[in-house]
Amino acid sequence: MPTPIPPPVANRHAGVALGWSAVFLALYLSWPRLRRALASLGGVIAVAAVYGPAIWLVMSIAVIPLLTGRPPAFGFRWWVQLVGHIPFVGLPIVAMIGRPAGEQARHAGRTPAAASGA
After folding, report:
1. Structural domain tally of the chain?
2. Is residue 93 a contact partner of residue 51, using CB atoms and an 8 Å limit?
3. pLDDT digit string (tens) for 15-34?
4. Residue 81: domain span
5. pTM of the predicted structure, to 2 decimals
6. Is residue 73 part of a domain?
């Protein structure tokens, strides 16, 4: 039977995920070029292919060493994490924030208020 994840660790991870989602939402709301890029599925995948690894790079090279006092170990597992952050971290964040439903997708270069008709 697998060892359960202790609640403080799970809560910390959820908080970090929420933080990175909030960062992407702020970028999405303030950068019209990003909204235009995310108007297509190919754009969503391309942005996720950059944003997911960027998250891993910041976390593994700056945040985790700062908190643990240990430098990153650039082994096989590190590279698997880097690539894995594309489909398992970047894509969910980018797809959920960047693919507005219905009418909003057609107005991808405009501000969110203008796109919604407000």
Report:
1. 1
2. yes
3. 999 999 999 999 999 999 99
4. 32-98
5. 0.78
6. yes
